[in-house]
Amino acid sequence: MGSSLDGYLSRDIEEILSIKEVEDGKRFFSYAGYDIETTRQVIRLRIYNEASCCESWGYFMSEDDLSRFIGAKLYDIKLVDTALNTQKLADVYEGGIMFVNFETDRGTLQFVAFNEHNGYYGHDAFIESEQLNAKVIL
Fold first, then answer.
1. Which of 3, 17, 26, 124 lies 20 to 30 Å from 87, alpha-carbon distance?
2. pTM (whole model) above 0.90
3. Please, which residues bridge with residue 97 across strands?
């Protein structure tokens, strides 16, 4: 039989309820990425999603099976150093990469923001959550 402590502990555990690819289109500013809904919040991953000139502008993506993480307990969210890359990307002349790791009881769910440009048209990418708020120019 459960104790009152069990109910208290289960309220403190944050679980992932859904992961949706989204696009926030406004007149002059369009952002694309993901909304990760949990039992406590909606975590937003976004990157500016419009070309400024002749560029392959940014996007957020994940190579993980997103459905595997629905119902997972979320322990932490971290930005990961890009030095973990072991291979240089071909044909990238300027830009950047931002890795966002979601540490869960089912392993690490990783998202990547990527932007390629000619050195003049960086795109801002951001994450908004209770655990981490960060904005970078890629």
1. 124
2. no
3. 114
Q: Which of 49, 74, 65 is nearest to 132 (CA)?
A: 74
Q: Which two tokens stand for residue 59?
A: 């996007």
DSSP string, 97-138: EEEEEEEETTEEEEEEEEEE-SSS---EEEEE-SS-EEEEE-
What's the rounded Cα separation, in Å, for the pair 70 and 65? 10
pLDDT for 14-47, tens place per residue?
A: 999 999 999 876 655 678 899 999 999 999 998 8
Which helix (H) or strand (E) element contains residue 36? Answer: strand 30-38
Sheet of strand 107-116, all strands in order from the earlier edge strand to the far edge: 56-61, 107-116, 95-104, 73-80, 14-25, 30-38, 42-48, 124-128, 133-137
Q: Which residue has the tokens 């540490």?
A: 103
